[in-house]
Amino acid sequence: MIEAAKLDGVSTLKIFKDIIIPMSSATGIYVFIYTIVQGLQYVYTPIKVITQGGPNYASSNLIYMAYHEAFTLYRTGSSSAVAVITVIIFMLLLVLEFRFVEKGVYYEN
User: Fold this and answer.
1) Is 69 within the bounds of a domain?
2) What are the boundaries of the signal sequence (predicted)?
3) How many domains does the chain have?
4) In terms of pTM, does the model score above 0.85?
């Protein structure tokens, strides 16, 4: 497609905007979601090792809170509730992503 556009005399900016971005949007969405999930997984270790949630749990997040409630304070009910809330938030983000972002994805064939 790019070669055909170049042969037709289409400008480089128009090729990038109309061909390259739509064809690579599926990969971009995958990388975006993967980065969010990996970021939430890898932020646990610095919180646990360096701050233990920080002063008054200022540097904590939901994943560390679920761990802390279950394995430090032995409140498994609260930990389960936080884990369910985290899953609901991830599902909501996934639904929003499929509803609004996935519309602009171009799949060949």
Assistant:
1) yes
2) none
3) 1
4) no
